[in-house]
Automatic annotation (TrEMBL):
InterPro entries: HemC (IPR000860), Porphobilin_deaminase_cofac_BS (IPR022419), Porphobilin_deaminase_N (IPR022417), Porphobilinogen_deaminase_C (IPR022418), Porphobilinogen_deaminase_C_sf (IPR036803). This is Porphobilinogen deaminase, chloroplastic. It comes from the Eukaryota. NCBIfam families: hemC (TIGR00212). Residues 54-265 form the Porphobilinogen deaminase N-terminal domain. GO terms for cellular component: chloroplast. GO terms for biological process: chlorophyll biosynthetic process; heme biosynthetic process. It is found in: Plastid, Chloroplast. PROSITE patterns: PORPHOBILINOGEN_DEAM. Tetrapolymerization of the monopyrrole PBG into the hydroxymethylbilane pre-uroporphyrinogen in several discrete steps.
């Protein structure tokens, strides 16, 4: 309260004694200064109002920021009031997963570590929407939040990157391949058991730096991220989906808001790409049925085939690649049917895997 009083007194006209109704006893120089101060305050208040229209929460990695900028630009293009300077603010939030980089994700709690702090900021009202890589989002959402929007999906394939080999098959026996993904590890070892896969965490730039420093002979990265960062010149080869089935929701951006915030939900509905949302929902239904975590190599991909139907492929594996179980489904490209396809595929693989398969 004292601060507010002090602020008001700072900008109040000085007490210069009695004046006429025209303020003739106030020097002209002072009056001009007061007009300028009041105008500056008005501009500042207007700017603050613009900033508060939408606050986007995101991780601070270059890729996360690229996805936040993409979201911001699409919002500006769709809504004229958001195109004004300062109308959208991007707020960087450091997650536990960003802070602990020397351990595998499975050892420190799984994928939710990249979303927990952002979800908390959303629920506490410190941000208005949260931008996530969908493959980092757990199959459950925190109570009080919804995820009504997926942006158009980027290329789902994985990229092979090496300084001295053109493909995984060219790597000599015993070569180290860097990857923090058990999904990639299991599929690499399934096809190339003579290779060794080591934990390899960090953002895209960090992992490429480690590669150039000789820590590993090769690494695999999501092509989607490299495209969003304009770094496709680093790619040695693109792995076909038949050889490396992608992670659940790979290449998809999801945007969450509070479940009681109709205004934000309306903004996000204008950006939603329904084909992507349905595909991601199908894949996540598969993952949820398997009760998958970062300790279990799981892959899945749903897409619209040339005849307009949904084609889904799913996979579970042992981390050492000695067992790989695959299945597929085809059906109508509609929500209920696609959710059921994902669930049914998950149930099949659970049955085929047998007791103990997921107890790694």
């Amino acid at each position: 309260m004292a601060g507010a009083i002090a602020m008001r007194s700072l900008f109040a006209p000085p007490n210069l004694g009695p004046t006429s109704s025209t303020g003739s006893h106030v020097p002209r120089r002072v009056r001009r200064s007061l007009v300028k101060i009041r105008a500056a305050i008005a501009v500042e208040q207007e700017t603050q109002a613009k900033v508060s229209l939408i606050r986007i929460g995101t991780r601070g990695s270059p890729l996360a920021l690229a996805q936040a900028y993409e979201t911001r630009d699409k919002l500006k293009a769709a809504h004229s009031e958001l195109a004004e300077e300062g109308a959208i603010e991007i707020i960087i939030i450091k997650t536990t997963g960003d802070k602990i980089l020397n351990q595998p994700l499975a050892d420190i709690g799984g994928k939710g570590l990249f979303t927990k702090e952002i979800d908390e900021a959303l629920l506490e009202g410190r941000i208005d929407i949260a931008v996530h890589s969908m493959k980092d989002v757990p199959t459950y959402l925190p109570e009080g939040t919804v995820l009504p929007c997926n942006l158009p999906r980027e290329d789902v394939r994985d990229a092979f990157i090496s300084l001295n080999a053109k493909s995984l098959s060219e790597l000599p026996a015993g070569s180290l391949v860097g990857s923090a993904s058990l999904r990639r590890q299991s599929q690499i070892l399934y096809r190339y058991p003579s290779l060794k896969v080591v934990n390899f965490r960090g953002n895209v730039q960090t992992r490429l730096k480690k590669l150039h420093e000789g820590e590993v002979r090769a690494t695999l990265l999501a092509l989607a991220g490299l495209k969003r960062l304009n770094m496709t010149d680093t790619v040695t080869a693109i792995l076909p989906i038949e050889d490396m089935l992608p992670a659940i929701a790979q290449g998809a951006i999801g945007i969450a808001c509070r479940s009681n915030d109709d205004k934000m939900a309306d903004y996000l509905s204008s950006l939603n790409h329904e084909e992507t949302r349905l595909a991601v929902t199908c894949e996540r239904a598969f993952l949820a049925t398997l009760d998958g975590s970062c300790r279990t190599p799981i892959a899945g991909y749903a897409f619209k085939s040339s005849d307009g139907n949904c084609l889904f492929r799913g996979l579970v594996a042992s981390p050492d690649g000695t067992r790989v179980l695959e299945t597929s489904r085809t059906g109508p490209y509609s929500l209920d049917e696609m959710v059921e396809m994902g669930k049914d595929a998950g149930k099949e693989l659970l049955s085929r895997a047998g007791p103990g398969f997921f107890d790694w």
